[in-house]
Specification:
Elements lengths: L18 E6 L7 H14 L4 E5 L7 H4 L9 E2 L2 E2 L10 E3 H4 L10 H12 L8 E5 L6 H10 L3 E6 L3 H16 L4 E12 L6 E2 L6 H9 L3 E7 L1 H8 L10 H14 L1
Parallel strand pairs: 1-6, 1-7, 2-5, 2-6, 7-8, 8-10
Antiparallel strand pairs: 3-4, 8-9
Helix pairs in contact: 1-9, 4-5
Bound molecules: adenosine-5'-diphosphate.
């Protein structure tokens, strides 16, 4: 199909963009990248053509999470070509464009320029583009929201009070950018000890659901703190690509996001 619709390089206003789902969080380290990659893989398992953009330019992790860290993208017609991954989800990350471990100390305009390249790549085959945003609520995020008008946003938080307060700011950021908030996901919610099976709540439990209620937004579900998620992430094998309770949790989340 002619999805490009006469798109021209250097003519971003005319680029046919897939539906963008932005994944944000108020602060770093709450599992936003983990959630983004697993959501993308789970959406692909539902039969959608999904691409993943790692817009977390200061801490890019999607190249590793999809096992593509040694790849470099080529350009075609002055636009980047997404990198295929083993999991059926093509990806582009700042990590693909910079040397491993290279620290970026860019000011807002440069960062926004780099992100534009990732977003204006050859995504014309995708139905949905999952965009892993930088944590927080700064100018870069707002620019991206204004320029690329996501169809919806998913916000990730841990059950902890501090993370929740920051998540509230993220909700406000999307509201300001007129992006509909699809809902809040509680990550690292409950921990089942792999040795004794006892369940504990290192970061509390249920806080995100109560906060979603208070803010009048949907609660999309909980993902437990599970060592398998961390280990598989490090190995570049998203749990959502496999079988079992965690894959099911991401499949349920993807179904809610899709509908
Ligand atoms: P963020 O993108 O918000 O900075 P990451 O997705 O990079 O956070 O996650 C931070 C760390 O926590 C990573 O090592 C990741 O593997 C781990 N992690 C995230 N979510 C879970 C989870 N539900 N269970 C276990 N480890 C997790």
């Amino acid at each position: 199909a002619d999805r490009e619709g006469g798109a021209q390089a250097g003519d971003p206003g005319k680029l046919a963009m897939p539906r963008i789902i932005a994944v944000g969080s108020g602060k770093g380290g709450v599992g936003k990248s983990t959630l983004s990659v697993n959501l993308a893989v789970a959406l692909a398992r539902l039969g959608l053509k999904v691409g993943l953009v790692d817009a977390d330019i200061y801490g890019p992790s999607q190249a590793r999470l999809l096992g593509t860290e040694d790849e470099k993208p080529v350009a075609h017609d002055k636009r980047l070509v997404p990198i295929a991954s083993r999991w059926g989800v093509p990806v582009l990350s700042m990590a693909h464009l910079t040397k491993a471990g290279q620290a970026l100390a860019w000011r807002g305009p440069m960062a926004a320029g780099a992100l534009t390249q990732l977003l204006e790549a050859h995504w014309e085959d995708a139905d949905v583009l999952v965009v892993d945003l930088p944590p927080g609520t700064g100018d870069v995020q707002l620019t991206i929201l204004h320029k690329f008008k996501p169809a919806g946003a998913v916000i990730v938080s841990t059950p902890q009070d501090l993370a929740l307060i920051d998540a509230t700011r993220a909700v406000e950021l999307f509201a300001k950018g007129k992006v509909p908030v699809l809902g809040l996901v509680e990550n690292m919610s409950g921990y089942i000890c792999p040795h004794c099976g006892e369940e504990s709540d290192p970061f509390g439990c249920g806080g995100a659901e109560a906060e979603a209620d208070r803010l009048g937004i949907a609660f999309l579900g909980r993902i437990p703190l599970d060592i398998a998620i961390r280990k598989q992430s490090d190995a570049g094998v998203p749990v959502a690509a496999g079988q079992g309770a965690q894959a099911d949790a991401f499949a349920a989340l993807a179904a809610r996001v899709r509908d």
